[in-house]
Write a structure and sequence with these properties.
Elements: H1 2-27, E1 36-42, E2 51-58, H2 60-67, E3 75-84, E4 89-95, H3 102-110, E5 116-126, E6 131-138, H4 144-184, H5 186-193, H6 195-201, H7 210-223, H8 227-243, H9 253-264, H10 271-279, H11 288-313, H12 320-346, H13 356-386, H14 391-408, H15 410-426, H16 428-442, H17 450-458, H18 460-474, H19 479-488, H20 494-503, H21 513-536
Antiparallel strand pairs: 1-2, 1-6, 2-3, 3-4, 4-5, 5-6
Helix pairs in contact: 1-4, 1-15, 4-8, 4-13, 4-14, 4-15, 5-7, 7-8, 9-11, 9-20, 9-21, 10-18, 11-12, 11-19, 11-21, 15-20, 16-17, 17-18, 18-19, 19-21
């Protein structure tokens, strides 16, 4: 399935880019070779043909008529002009800034300069010695989308290597600590303490196996928002799970269930979303704590349930009675969470006026998150010392594994991140949004939130950027602002997680892992929409 999705992302992205460029060329979107009217204000009178500074003024009416696009208002651009009085034309370099319209920024990027645009200027007549009526003709541009696809794919390849190399130190630290804890027997103690839960989730894994301890540590770190610690624990868990795998290139049931839990992204404090809300001027940034827990809870339950159902369909699953009991429990838990969050909201706990309980909860989790890593390091190593384990030697032995794992995942990250970059840059996201908008309109999902639905599973940075844009345009405390930030905190970057974890152990046949992960994503987004509409909008 991963092969088809990967290839599909490439095909949709490149096809959408090519069609878009053809349509833009046919419609004359960029008006190549045409002159847009403007006014020029020179800093000093023209003398000779040297490059001189100036300011170019464009009216809103002229610009919108020329490019058939909307802009905020009339604007000025700093420029440098080299004018030849004999030919009555010259060259011009326009300096791009925050006021530059989007279409011009696109042209500048296509020219490879990004901070400036070049072209020709014609002075038609002067109002006085410094002011002229003029016309500007920019350089011709073509195949803008295809060039974006090329540059984005190359940038994504660099990003993939940067991510992998950045993991080396973190991987070395935590795999070294894990090795010490494993040799000391501490991981077995942790595994046995959670045996009832882990036996249901991963019935084919012995309760005292190192994989259980690594998975528990990964899930715990994710819930506390400790991504730097969660990733090494997760990669270690996949390595241990692979030791029990009879088919080395095929994902096991436990791997699929573990990935479903990870892609659900259950976190007690969605710190990134809260930080963006605070930076955007929210009166109560932490108001999404409860809604995000609800959305991520829905994602987790749906992902695990889907994984168990797919196990049963494939003939390698758990007992059907156990599955039915789990489904009933899942429905009951969701109902209780809905009721609890609704009652809490009605009592004003999440409101800015009485934010005491919300702030206390947030503070407690933040304190735990701060002391968790030092506490784990001290506890694990201290226990090993008590057990008379050679802590330093074993730590070094475990740390060496981190380097090999980090290098091993580079090809998988390059492949997946490049495909996602091509899909986004080519316009595949816009295509899917348009295709599914009739369905989302029926369930009351605002059109502005649709890109978040598709961006979050594909790109963490893309989703973060879009959330910031929504905050800026609509306000962090608006309905759409609360919804998009809740969506951000209700699931994870599914395809990145799958490429990272499966790539670390060379898994090529992912079985139902992607399907379960995507179901978790859908459930998380729908859960976010439901709870935000319940608490802040109209059902």
């Amino acid at each position: 399935m991963l092969n088809k999705i990967w290839f599909g992302l490439l095909v949709i992205g490149i096809t959408a880019a090519f069609i878009s460029d053809i349509l833009d060329s046919a419609s004359g979107k960029y008006n190549n070779g045409k002159i847009i009217p403007a006014k020029v204000v020179f800093d000093k009178p023209l003398t000779g043909s040297k490059m001189v500074p100036a300011h170019i003024e464009f009216t809103r009416e002229a610009f919108e008529s020329f490019y058939k696009t909307k802009i905020a208002g009339s604007f000025k651009q700093d420029a440098k002009i080299n004018y030849d009085s004999a030919s009555k034309k010259g060259s011009i370099i326009l300096e791009a800034d925050d006021n530059t319209p989007v279409i011009w920024k696109t042209i500048a990027k296509q020219e490879g300069k990004e901070s400036s645009l070049s072209g020709e200027i014609y002075l038609n007549g002067k109002t006085d010695s410094l002011n002229y009526d003029a016309g500007v003709k920019l350089e011709n541009v073509s195949f803008v989308k295809m060039q974006n696809v090329t540059s984005s794919s190359l940038e994504a390849a660099k990003t993939a290597v940067t991510i992998a190399l950045g993991l080396i130190g973190i991987m070395a630290l935590w795999l070294g600590i894990m090795k010490v804890a494993e040799q000391a027997g501490l991981m077995k103690i942790i595994s046995k303490s959670l045996k009832p839960l882990t036996h249901f989730l991963f019935p084919e894994i012995p309760s005292d196996h190192p994989a259980i301890g690594a998975m528990v540590m990964n899930i715990s770190a994710n819930m506390l928002g400790l991504g730097n610690a969660a990733t090494p624990f997760g990669l270690k868990a996949m390595e241990e799970l692979d030791k029990l795998n009879p088919e080395k290139d095929t994902a096991t049931n436990s791997m699929c269930t573990f990935l479903a839990i990870n892609t659900a992204g259950l976190t007690l404090i969605p710190a990134t979303a809260i930080a963006v809300r605070a930076a955007s001027g929210s009166s109560n940034p932490g108001i999404i704590i409860g809604t995000s827990i609800f959305g991520a809870g829905c994602a987790t339950i749906a992902g695990v349930t889907a994984a168990k159902i797919f196990e049963k369909i494939s003939g390698k699953g758990t007992d059907i009675k156990q599955l039915v009991r789990f489904l009933l429990k899942a429905i009951s838990i969701i109902a209780l969470i809905v009721l609890a969050v609704f009652m809490i909201q009605k009592t004003g706990i999440f409101s800015s006026a009485s934010g005491g309980v919300s702030e206390i909860f947030k503070t407690i989790i933040q304190i735990i998150s701060v002391i968790a890593i030092p506490f784990v390091i001290l506890t694990f190593l201290g226990y090993a010392v008590i057990k008379k384990i050679k802590v330093y030697e074993i730590f070094i032995e475990g740390a060496k594994e981190g380097f090999n794992i980090a290098l091993k995942i580079i090809p998988y990250l390059v492949a997946m991140l490049c495909a996602i970059a091509i899909f986004r840059a080519g316009g595949g996201m816009d295509f899917l949004v348009s295709l599914l908008s009739p369905v989302t309109n029926l369930i009351g999902m605002p059109a502005e939130s649709m890109p978040m639905v598709f961006l979050r599973p594909l790109s963490g940075s893309g989703a973060l950027g879009y959330m910031s844009e929504i905050m800026s345009a609509h306000g962090p405390d608006s309905f759409i602002g609360v919804l998009t930030s809740t969506m951000f905190g209700s699931t994870e970057t599914t395809f990145y997680v799958i490429a990272l974890y499966f790539g670390s152990i060379n898994i090529r046949k992912t079985r139902h892992a992607i399907a379960a992960g995507l179901i978790a994503d859908v459930a998380g987004m729908l859960g976010a929409l439901f709870i935000v509409r319940l608490l802040f909008g109209m059902l």
